[in-house]
Amino acid sequence: MADKELRWRGSALSDLLTFPVDVRKQAGFELNKVQKGKTPGDFKVISDWGAGVTEIRLRGEDGIFRMVYVAKFEEAVYVLHSFQKKTQKTSPGDVVIIKQRYKDLEQERRKKSD
Known about the structure:
Layout: E1 5-8, H1 12-16, H2 21-35, E2 43-45, E3 53-60, E4 63-70, E5 76-85, H3 92-113
C-alpha cells in the first residue's frame, strides 16, 4: 500500500515549522506512521472536533505541542492544525480553528463529489 499524501490546511505547516527541531522530527516520524496506515505513538481521538479527528501529542524541551489531523479519507491525510499547548485544556481559539478547518474540508469534498 502506498503512503497517503499529506495535505496541510490553513497555517498548519507554517505553524509546525516554528516548533523546535526535536519536536518537528517527532512530528514527521508520527505523520509518516499515519501515512502508512499505522497508529501514532501518543494520540487521542477527539470526535467533538469532527468525525475521525485525531490529536498527536508531542513533547520537547520547550514544552508540549499538538498536531491535529484526519486520516479517514481515502485520498489523503489532512493536517488541520499545529500548535503549542500552554495549558492543560486546549484553548478555545485552537478548537475553533480545528472545527472550522474540518468543516471547510468537508464542504470542499462535498463540492468535488457533486
